[in-house]
Amino acid sequence: MTPKPSLGAVSTQNKDGRVVFMGAVIDMTWQLAIVVLIPIVGGYKLDQHFKTTPLWLLVGCALAIAGTVAVLRRILSGLNQSFTHPGETKK
Question: How far apart are CA 37 and CA 55, in angstroms?
Fold first, then answer.
């Protein structure tokens, strides 16, 4: 008879999953910061330079949204592959 783990015990598989998840979150954080800040600040600076107040800022916001979606899809796809069991197939 195998002993039951206590409520506070964490299995090795669960611990490895947490490490993978935290790594992905840290990776996603700096990527999102770059993907959001550069287009928006760049659009703001271009508007100041060319005196086209909302135009380039709106373009920067659109690029930031597209970049955010791309980063999230890539990170979530990688996490999905990390947590898919070897015998499982994707639908």
Answer: 17
Whether residue 65 lies inside any domain: the answer is: yes
Q: Enter the DSSP assignment of 6.
A: P
Q: How far is CA 8 from CA 4, 5, 77, in A?
A: 11, 8, 31
Number of domains in the chain: 1
pLDDT 10s digits, 18-74:
898 899 999 999 999 999 999 999 999 999 999 999 999 999 999 999 999 999 999
What domain range includes position 44?
A: 23-78
- Let me know if residue 61 belongs to a domain: yes
CA angle 32/38/40 to nearest 5° reads 100
